[in-house]
Protein 1
Amino acid sequence: MERIDTIVIGAGVAGLTAARLLVRAGRRVVVLEARDRVGGRVVTDRLSGLVTDLGASWIHGINDSPVAAAAAAFDMRTAEFTVGGYQVDSRPIAYYTPDGRRMDDAAARAFAADVHAVDAALVGIIAASEPEASYREVTERAIAEQGWAAARAQRVRDHLEHRAEEQYGAWIEDLAAHGLDDDLIDGDEVVFPDGYDVLPRRLAEGLDVRLNHVVSAVRWADDGVGIETSRGAFTADSVVVTVPVGVLQSDDFTIDPPLPPLHADALGRLEMNAFEKVFLRFEDRFWDDDVYAVRQGGPEGVWWHSWYDLTRLHDVPTLLTFAAGPAAQAVRNWSDEDIAESVLAQLRRLYGDRVGAPTQVHVTRWQDDPWARGSYAYMTLGATTSDHDNLAVPIGGVLHLAGEATWTDDPATVTAALCSGHRAAENVLGHAVPIESAWS
């Protein structure tokens, strides 16, 4: 049986960052990964000859971003594409009314002003909300304060429902009132025309990564840890566990002794979401010129309400939409063709017979991925923002949890994963190390 200084479970960005920093500090580290590749939920498809990021896509705010610094160090080409918390303005958006007519500029500006008014009211309402309050409850209070007519209020209500779904893949009534507290974007957002997976592949260079090693149990004590995998057992002085919340909560992954109450309670208030990407590529571009997004409101937009124009990334007419929350759950067992036809039916409401047949459809299936069980975690009712950091408190001096769900400031992002890996490495070592060491 191998004895190692530190075992890292999961070769996503969190695990690879922790491993690189530990190796550079002189530790013997083995990374155990269930998949046949590195990257975790950062994965890029290139089988069609086009680059499609199926998991993480954006750096949400490049100002002072360690991910942006790592990407620059690895010479990763970027393209500005700012979506900023399901933004309502600041980028050209074609808004359509419930009856399928495009809003003129004045109407779109008025709608954006209404959303901003509610967001301003939300600050105080959320701060004063009770622990069990949902995002629905606080947004309803903010809308009610405005004293608007029913149709005007409903238009903003639709937007807030869709924002909760697109930001966290959760229905607005299931998301904690504080669930969007972290939604602050500092600077432009960028995507990667050559694929986001360059980041984990570069982070993995030189590391001892064991692929196709499915970990079933982590047994810890004061003197070290034992790891059971599909390819044998390992022992180590310490372990960094970076598997997603959905795996941590599953019966297929055992931690023994069980997590202490601080960690178990925090984990119990988080849940993996239902959030899938739907990519549609076309022969010709039929939608509005000079916009980066198309959105429709009203009952027809309950599932398919927002389309993002990715054409300029590869000069191929491409729309990206999301099946989020209830929509993702409802279409989970649908074929790609049936999902595409449902999306196209809504596009035909707006553009009629100009809508051609897609040349390619790609739908992600993160809900059915056994090593993810969803796209990322969100805060359920009763959760607090401190639950993220509580998960990362070292256990027994030997067990450390990391990953996007363990970082408070910007959870559900690659930034959170990278920063949590850095923190875990520092906790293992017992002293500070520069995060830049992971890529410099």
Protein 2
Amino acid sequence: MIFELNKETFLNLIQKSQSIVDKKTTSQILQNVKIEAYSGRLMITATDMEVGFRDFTDAEIEKEGCITVSARKLFEVLKEIGEGVIRFEVQRNNWIHLTCGSAEFKLVGMPDDDFPNLLEVPEEALIELKSEVLDTLAAKSVYAASSDQNKHVYRGVLFKVNADVINMVSTDGHRLARITMDNTIGIPDMEILVPRKGILEMQRMISEGSETMKFGTLQNHIVFRLGNQTTIARLIDAQFPDFEMVIPRNVEHDIRVDRMQFFDICRRVSLFSDLKTHTILLSLDNGIMQVDGSTPEYGEAHDQMSVNYEGDVIRLNFNVTYLLEMLRVFESDDIFMRFNEGGPVIFEPSVKEEYDYMALIMPMII
């Protein structure tokens, strides 16, 4: 296989594969990116068996073929190499000879025989949606999904749609996020569990600025397509927890909080949160919410703000990382904290949006 391609174009293709490739796997082939050169087109494929990615571009193909190579090492080389046209040549025993200007590299390649095949997705299986809708649904929910590989169900984001309503819900067992909006865009009925990584890849694609994206489900997979790029994620085959059971229906306390002031205080105090649990303490007492952080290694921090609370002292311990991640996704200037003592705390916007949004965090028991 021999082809020539502009360095920036090649680097951009390989860079997109970096978040897909499983760097922790013991399987060498899954640490590789697949490179195919056929009919004037160069195609890049990466997968970790759960999420796959494919992109392609036009290239000067001198000799057609296919090879796999370390995604990380190729990316490192392309970042450091000078500007210009790269010549990529596969030689005997799968060695890859890569040149650009005076720079020359030889990389170890592997045949593609054991590289997993990605699902082929016809255009007619997809519908076109506004990227903004999918981005909003993802941004308001995916942060609460677990990144722990051992928490199979909690690594998924529930995508539940009927003729009237779209719901996206995520939880890691300690916090929960739910966004609900009217289904005015014609998404078909479905109830699927999408891996967190697949949602994050969709967001990365949207960040490139396109107003629309194609989307669909096929053979137990969810597919996102934007231009030449396709992300395919295997759906999680599991029962999502009955999250409605943990949401309190009637609450004793309903406190209005200035969101950015609360965020800034939490961020400052987080410098002295517990190193292992990231715990900070919120104390409510007659119009004041005080936030405290303390760690034997470095010291302590204290700050406070005015709130509409009157009553006995209430103390709530929170993982400050959960608070900061949650506060970032709200858009309203003020939010409501709603809770019963000893139970989960609900956070909701003070102003009605084009969608309904709710976040929930379980206080920590110290």
